[in-house]
Amino acid sequence: MSTRQSDSTDGFEEPDDDKLFRDRVRENPRPAAVWLAGLALLLLLEIGRVFAGVGQAFGIVGFTVELFASIPASVGDNVAGTLGGAAGFVATALTAVLIAFAITVPVSGSVPDAAVDILGLDLSRRGRRWAKRAELTFVLVAVAGLIAYTPVGGAFSALIGAITGGVDALASALPSITSRDLIANTGHRLPDGGWEGTFLGLSPAAAWAIRTGLVFAYATAFLVWLWRGFNVYRTHYRLADWTPRDDTVRRFRHNYWGLFGFVIVFLFVVLALWAPAVSPVEAQHNIYEPNAHEFQYLDENGEVTSTTHVFANLQSRSDGQNTIGPMSYDGYGRWAPLGTTNRGQDMMTHLSYGARTSLVIGVTAIGLGALIAVVLSLLSSYYKGITDIATVMASDTIQAVPALLLIMLVSVVFQEANHPIAQPLDGGLLLALIFAFAYWPGMWRAIRGPSLQVSEQEWVDAAKSYGQTPLQTMRKHMAPYIAGYILIYGSLLIGGVIISTAALTFLGLGINPPTPEWGRLINGGQSYISTSSWHVATIPGIAIVLVVIAFNALGDAIRDAIDPEADVDESEAATAGGGA
Amino acid sequence: MSQNTASTTPDDRAETPSDTMVKVRDLKTYYDSGSLLEDRPVKAVDGVSFDIRRGETLGLVGESGCGKTTLGRTLIQLEEATDGEVLFDGTDITSLRGDQLYEWRQNAQMVFQDPDSSLNDRMTIGEIIREPLDVHDWKTPADRRKRVKSLLDEVGLSPEHYYRYPHQFSGGQRQRIGIARTLALNPEFIVLDEPVSALDVSVQAEIINLLEELQDEFDLTYLFIAHDLSVVRHICDRVAVMYLGNIMEIGPTEELFTDPANPYTHALLSAIPKPDPTASRDRITLHGTPPNPRYPPTGCPFSTRCPVRIRPDKHEDLDDEVWEGINGFREIIRERMRADRSIRERVRERFGLETRFATIDETYDELFGDTAVPDEVERVLTDVAEAAGNHEEQAALDRLNAEFGSVCDGVAPEGGADPVEPEYYEVSDSGRLSYCHRHDAEHRETETVLDDRS
């Protein structure tokens, strides 16, 4: 930093400043290398899980692609049913081209000009943009057609299958530090005391505690690594001595309520991501297929016998008469850190996989809803007029129906029809999409004012005056100003989505068993709240309250941190101190 | 004194000098009301014509809301012109679309009024100034950086400000950044929309000087929009005075300031405080507010407030107070004609209940209560009041115009049906133009009438 400062006094021909980020790293590679080595070490420790994650990402991408790929055919089938085969074919082709075109619009900008120049046409700027989109659409449709209608498709799916299979194989073969193979906590008591099959012969409770502790330690290390990265970039590679982001981070670090929220949200996310590691029994054995999996235990006669989970669960229910409370073993030597549910399943397993469900639904719903809201608010505030009116009408129409009622209605319609999107997560994905559909008008309303305001700023006019494209103007000059608002409303609403999901499941409408969900736990435990099995409803209840509060606190803190006017005096001081 | 021999419009001066850069002809910019029922646009710019010569600074002055900013924005195609043409080196830029417009935009840029709002706070100074270069794909990224740094130097900032953010700068510095961005594409023509009105007086001078230096260095042509007349007098070669979407007078600065021809220019200049306490002429106070640009008056746009409005010969000697009353009366009737009465109000009126419209009698009393009105005039006024009271506003106005109207109100002297508008009269050898009937040979000149009536 000091070298650059001395350079900068020489005038504007300073060579140092004109270097790209890549060059700056090349010049001083050590800090970046150390930091990347940290990442490599962290990834290596959890290599098995990393591949499992990759495999899951493949699954999600595959599902999405298949969903989109099935749209043209299903539209075509519907049309063919009423208008005949030829019309159906035309409808299929049209839908396919439309979908392909919609996909190309956001990515066509990054296609190099050379791709169009080979056409040999003398194109204007606008013409070139459309030519790129047309080219991309053509390529996409051609590839899709090849896969769908020719033998290439078979080879392609074989290839995909090989890749996913390879990833899955790697995921199960490679070790990870938090795997239950390495630190096993399932085993049985030996007749003469001690445990068989657990990690180092420790009790399942101790083994589980070690594994869970490792998970959180690992996640914390990852967080530290991220923070280090920011600091390394700031001290070694960033050209500016100070940017507004520094202040944002500083304000956030001093907001204790926000930090509390952050910690809880962090715990919640870790719980969801590492659900297989923190659950004392495997969800597949205990919840999804309890009658297909056996385990061994020491029975009252002092013999090691074998039984299925479904039978053991029946005997370990917490239903008022019979209670397996928190921090105890059930009658089969299975460790239940949070007790069991009213159906005898392990509460901790249920809670961590339920966190996964909630997180997936919350993030999908808010992510999608916020995306719709931001895009529409940018379009409607930039173009105004008819675009604005159309958006107002659409959002008013949706908001005219009470949200919860609308969600129930749509969810029942799709579930009764057994629609393919009602399959994943036993209705969880469907619920997420419905939430996105029902909640975007609210978010759009919330950011409409700010986006109209920013669209009236003179810098938007200035951008227009030198010919900036509308899309770029919206992205560079308008979107950053509403990003803060959408972050806040998003993080506030995510709590609402989580609690609504729980509420719907509580009513038996949201997510069907066996997919774990917190609302169902509360529903199951509500009649035992005054008995010794009080924990069944109380623990997930407290968890929901905590998570929702935490998301709200985090949202508030983000808002305060982003707002540059939150502490004018201090930032003035920082300004005076910063700079060359 | 001006010569009003040749009546001429800018169109007649066909032999425009070869160094004309921007040629504006009958330009109109209307804003739609957005209402579905009534189609009465706001006439922000209502038919202006003028030339801007290469290398000159043309000032554009006028009170707020007269359409000067809209005119400036139309010249660089930030607003779409409703009618007329803007010839930029011979090309009509109002007809440019898509790529042609994008290419042309390099030639004309704008410096905005509010330095707080014209710079995106989330971008560094470097990014802000670089953006026009990025948009137009100017050379290589490294060249762009160099250019931005030399621009920063050019406008009196230092190159290390590249990585700072706008809110670390003062208003004057922010305006310099805005100017640097404007210069990035090497434009020939720059619209300066009140570039200093948001700044401290001490900073204003610095920015003005900077603008003058840059003009010399880069051969820039400026359209300088302002309402601060002293700044205009300092920087501009020629000045156009605008009122209600029309240019009232346009000509060389010094001439226009020392010897205004148009009554509106007179009024505007009389508002400049004079350091000499013994200065002879009083300030001309204009009555009322500028008319609603949605409903401009017929005839001359300034007729409703003009201190030297032409009066019919037989009423020439009427008391000024009575004339004031008559003018006010006309405005109120026009206002009543426009106000749409709700059904509820019609019903209330029917039953003699109070409505939000004062009765015409009250108005009449207020206007003429304590002035001595000659009998014959009073007779006419009573007729008018009666017609207005019966909601026959058009009839009332017609009667009023027939008696008191003049060429200024669009009443043709020969009694033609179409309202007449003033013409541009060449009022000096330098080609200064003024939009006023007073320059016609048959009327007395503004100056004498002003002295007469004051």
Automatic annotation (TrEMBL), chain A:
Region (Disordered): 1-21
Localization annotation: Cell membrane
Principal location listed in the UniProt entry: membrane
Transmembrane segments: 32-59, 79-103, 136-163, 205-227, 255-275, 357-379, 391-415, 421-440, 482-512, 532-554
UniProt KW keywords: Cell membrane, Membrane, Transmembrane, Transmembrane helix, Transport
Domain ABC transmembrane type-1: 355-555
GO biological process, one term: transmembrane transport
Membrane topology (UniProt): Multi-pass membrane protein
Gene Ontology CC terms, in alphabetical order: plasma membrane
Keyword Glycoprotein listed: no
Entry-linked PROSITE patterns: ABC_TM1
InterPro entries in UniProt: BP-dependent_transpt_permease, MetI-like, MetI-like_sf, OppC_N
Family classification: Belongs to the binding-protein-dependent transport system permease family.
Name listed for the protein in its UniProt record: Peptide ABC transporter permease
Organism, as annotated: Halorubrum persicum
Lineage start: Archaea, Methanobacteriati, Methanobacteriota, Stenosarchaea group, Halobacteria
From TrEMBL, chain B:
Signal peptide: none
Pfam families: ABC_tran, oligo_HPY
Biological process according to GO: peptide transport; transmembrane transport
Domain ABC transporter: 22-269
Keywords assigned: ATP-binding, Nucleotide-binding, Transport
UniProt-listed InterPro entries: AAA+_ATPase, ABC_transp_ATP-bind, ABC_transporter-like_ATP-bd, ABC_transporter-like_CS, Oligopep_ABC_C, P-loop_NTPase
Top-level lineage group: Archaea
Xref: Gene3D superfamilies: P-loop containing nucleotide triphosphate hydrolases
Any GO MF annotation of the entry: ATP hydrolysis activity
Family under the similarity heading: Belongs to the ABC transporter superfamily.
Classification via PANTHER family: D,D-DIPEPTIDE TRANSPORT ATP-BINDING PROTEIN DDPF-RELATED, TRANSPORT ATP-BINDING PROTEIN
Protein name (Swiss-Prot/TrEMBL): Peptide ABC transporter ATP-binding protein
